[in-house]
Design a protein that fits this description.
There is one protein chain. By secondary structure, the chain is α/β, with parallel strands linked by helices. The protein is about 40% helix and about 15% strand. The protein has one domain (about 25-200): Glycoside hydrolase/deacetylase (TIM Barrel, Alpha-Beta Barrel). It has helices spanning about 40-50, 60, 65-75, 95-110, 125-135, 155-165, 180-195; strands at about 25-30, 55, 75-80, 115-120, 140, 145, 170-175, 200. The strands form two sheets. Strands 1, 2, 3, 6, 7 and 8 form a six-stranded parallel β-sheet that branches. Strand 6, helix 6 (about 155-165) and strand 7 (about 170-175) form a beta-alpha-beta unit. The longest helix is centred in the middle third of the chain and has 19 residues, at about 95-110. The protein is globular. Bound molecules: zinc ion. Zinc ion (ZN) binds next to loops.
């Protein structure tokens, strides 16, 4: 039989931040991968030797396995963000199971191991999503600082939101797909070196 790690407990709410020692922060990118933006984000992270989390949608991941492998090869965490980005609490149990299960399957087929983290689209969780997530071996992770980059507020505003929100344990939410994400790409190039200068250790949670 294949090795399976113990299933996590059924949570009642998602994690909003990460615990760790020192000035640890987590950068996370949702909704991808998108070949228009994800490669630039990966390249910037690689330039600074920084690891991040990518919560991918199954319907995107299935078309871009090469980008998934690139994420994993660089040490990033690939998490489950559902198949088609629905509002989970509006779905019947069978659809929630399919949305999360099919996405975990694609990640496992591509990378050789199933994801250990998931994030509900729109941050809309319900009890069933916690139960099904745990059954699939995943912990729920939300975020602390929302850059609202999908509203395209301008690169400077995104940079400002990250630097203002920076603190130990903070999880930053951005998006590498779902629209024009060139501001997200440019903002990362600006705030990443500044966070590092300020002494933040940008990494991924341990599980
Ligand atoms: Zn999303």
């Amino acid at each position: 039989p294949r090795f399976r790690r113990a299933l996590p407990p059924v949570r009642q709410r998602p994690f909003l931040r990460v615990s760790g020692t020192g000035n640890t922060m987590v950068l996370s990118f949702d909704d991808g991968p998108d070949p228009r933006y994800t490669p630039a984000i990966l390249s910037t992270l690689r330039q600074y030797g920084v690891r991040a989390m990518f919560f991918v949608c199954g319907e995107m991941a299935v078309h871009h396995p090469d980008l998934l492998r690139e994420m994993a090869d660089d040490g990033h965490v690939v998490g489950n963000h559902s198949w088609s980005h629905p509002l989970i609490p509006k779905l019947p149990p069978s659809r929630i199971r399919a949305e999360l299960g099919k996405t975990s399957d694609v990640i496992e087929r591509t990378l050789g191991s199933a994801p250990l983290w998931y994030r509900a689209p729109y941050g809309a969780w319900n009890r069933l999503s916690f139960e099904i997530g745990a059954e699939l071996g995943m912990e729920p992770l939300a975020w602390t600082v929302d850059t609202l980059d999908w509203k395209e507020p301008g690169t400077a505003t995104i940079v400002d939101r990250v630097l203002t929100g920076a603190a130990p344990g903070v999880v930053v939410l951005s998006h590498d797909a779902g629209g024009d994400r060139s501001q997200t790409v440019r903002a990362l190039r600006a705030y990443l070196p500044r966070l590092l200068d300020e002494g933040y250790h940008l990494t991924v949670p341990r599980r």
